[in-house]
């Protein structure tokens, strides 16, 4: 009988933890309202609206097995910093400058495999994953996060650390509750 009772308590503990919801994570910047929509883990978009027009921006990233797309709009005051990041990462090879528009294009076997276009207030990047090597895809994926952070004024690593800390705290609370429930159950069995 004791084994059945302990097995039931343990099963209840596992079920509770499995179906438990984590508490919502507050926005990282109090002055920013962000909207995030995630579909199958392959794409998301962020909109940062503030009272200051210089901080308003939007970023959309789409990833799947075939393509990587990065689209963003931002205040023109951020253009210089973004342009410098692009030149540092992509170099001047395959760069075409037309007025204030900077565009990197790479073609292979007549197919466009990479296109990155920077204007005064927008950045669009496209990678055809079928014709590009994995190292380049990984570099662009990581670089997209840096660009998103620069455009939005956020810090993805800090956000991920806060999210992990929140999940750890929730797990510790659930574990403490389960231990109390187990001790209470043991006392009932022994009485």
Give a written overview of the molecule.
By secondary structure, the protein is of the alpha+beta class. It has two domains: 53 residues; 118 residues, no CATH class. Helix content is 44%, strand content 27%. It is built from four helices and eight strands, in the order H-E-E-E-E-H-E-E-E-E-H-H. An eight-stranded antiparallel sheet has the order 1-2-3-4-8-7-6-5, with helices on one face. Helix 1 runs antiparallel to helix 4 and helix 2 packs antiparallel against helix 3. About 8% of the residues have low confidence.
Features:
44% helix, 191 residues, 8 strands, elongated, 2 domains, alpha+beta, single chain
Give the gist of this structure.
This protein has 191 residues and is an alpha+beta fold. It contains four helices and eight strands.
Strand content: 25-35%
Helix content: 40-55%
For the largest sheet, list the strands in their spatial order. 1-2-3-4-8-7-6-5
Tally of separate helices: 4
Number of strands: 8
Structural class: alpha+beta
How many structural domains in the coordinates? 2
> Averaged pLDDT, please?
78
Task: Report, as a whole number of angstroms, the end-to-end distance.
Answer: 14 Å
Spans where pLDDT lies below 50 across 5 or more residues:
27-41
Query: Biggest sheet, open or closed, and with what strands and sense?
Result: 8 strands, antiparallel
The string of secondary-structure elements, in order, is: HEEEEHEEEEHH
Which descriptor suits the 3D outline? Answer: elongated
Gyration radius (Cα, Å) is 24 Å
């Amino acid at each position: 009988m004791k084994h059945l009772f302990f097995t039931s308590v343990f099963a209840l503990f596992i079920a509770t933890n499995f179906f438990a919801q984590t508490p919502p994570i507050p926005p990282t910047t109090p002055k920013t309202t962000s909207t995030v929509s995630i579909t199958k883990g392959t794409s998301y978009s962020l909109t940062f609206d503030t009272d200051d027009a210089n901080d308003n921006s939007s970023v959309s990233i789409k990833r799947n097995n075939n393509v990587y797309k990065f689209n963003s709009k931002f205040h023109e005051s951020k253009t210089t910093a973004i342009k410098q990041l692009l030149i540092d990462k992509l170099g001047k090879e395959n760069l075409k400058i037309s007025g204030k528009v900077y565009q990197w294009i790479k073609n292979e076997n007549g197919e466009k495999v990479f296109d990155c276009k920077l204007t005064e207030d927008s950045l669009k990047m496209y990678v055809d994953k079928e014709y590009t090597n994995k190292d380049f895809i990984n570099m662009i994926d990581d670089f997209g996060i840096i660009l998103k952070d620069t455009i939005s004024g956020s810090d993805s690593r800090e956000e991920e650390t806060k999210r992990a800390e929140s999940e750890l705290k929730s797990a510790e609370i659930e574990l403490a509750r389960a231990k109390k429930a187990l001790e209470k159950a043991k006392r009932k069995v022994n009485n």
